């Protein structure tokens, strides 16, 4: 299950360790706050979903129904990004919740859920080999005619003088010769990929945990509390890891001394030029030295006092969480995520009760670029 390897490494070897990857390449794996610090320098769609769900329940004679919540949340977030009342929206009405036919909605429907998540040896080797391909081959794959056609249709939706993110990007290209079409496509792709399925999957894990904790669901109905939102971000970070490649060699001090497998005590780690470092958001968010001995328990009450941590690290954009990364390259849309989560909770929780589906269903965590919930029927 996703995270098990990270948790095991952290438990057995401490907060930093070296490992060999494909072709013998040396990696540094870390959840040490000091090392990470060095490396990482209003929505209406929820209410529309309420109306849709009420119609479905009414058609079922008022009897509780089983819904694919993840599919609905994906539509909520996609529509919010498309036409939300927020500067990072695209002013582009996708109509996913209304069931409208839309090319972009089709492309992004369960984009990551349809990806093959059970990587084999050949897949792992291929991903590493890609890094050694000539740049012209990468450009050829990236700029295939079919892909370019779909990307350019996005840019065509930008409006003259508009204040949405798409129009602002198109205007920036018009006034600056240094911004290329490829730059615009890259920016829009980042916003769509980072903002759509990530939000939907985070919300999906939130409602899953609420279905397992009906007592907290009752408390939440009385008051929409920020600590529940923070705890699901801590416990289920949608991006499990990130990597950085060193531009030059360096010696980085550890937050606390740790013992190596041969019994030596170290207080620093060496990073060679062009060496990759893996930062585990998953394991950091469950580090007992930061979150306490119950770090592996979903417990929103931890955020009752201060920021919920046993030790302040100064990492992250919110409550010492690494979920949105940290430093200059932290998630540009994290406030949008927080606001939409709050809005969706306010719309759905007072109107519906959530519970696990009947039958012996096991939900576990897997990675497909992002962490997704998967149903396993036994």
CATH topology (level 3) name: Cytochrome p450
Integer tally of domains: 1
Summing up helix and strand content along with how strands pair, one would put the structural category as alpha+beta
CATH-defined superfamily: Cytochrome P450
Put the structure in a nutshell.
Helix content is 44%, strand content 14%. With 378 residues, it is of the alpha+beta class.
Describe the overall structure.
This is Cytochrome P450. This protein is α+β, with helices and mostly antiparallel strands and 378 residues long. The protein has a single domain (4-41, 43-142, 196-377), classed as Orthogonal Bundle (Cytochrome p450), CATH 1.10.630. The chain is 44% helix and 14% strand. It is built from 16 helices and 8 strands. The protein has helices spanning 4-13, 33-39, 45-59, 69-83, 103-108, 121-130, 135-142, 145-155, 165-175, 181-195, 197-212, 214-222, 226-235, 281-284, 288-291, 334-348; strands at residues 16-20, 26-30, 241-245, 250-259, 265-271, 276-280, 361-368, 370-377. Strands 1-2-6-3 form a 4-stranded mixed beta sheet, sandwiched between helices. The longest helix is centred in the middle third of the chain and has 16 residues, at 197-212. It is globular and about 65 Å long. Residues 84-90, 112-117 and 374-378 have low confidence and may be disordered.
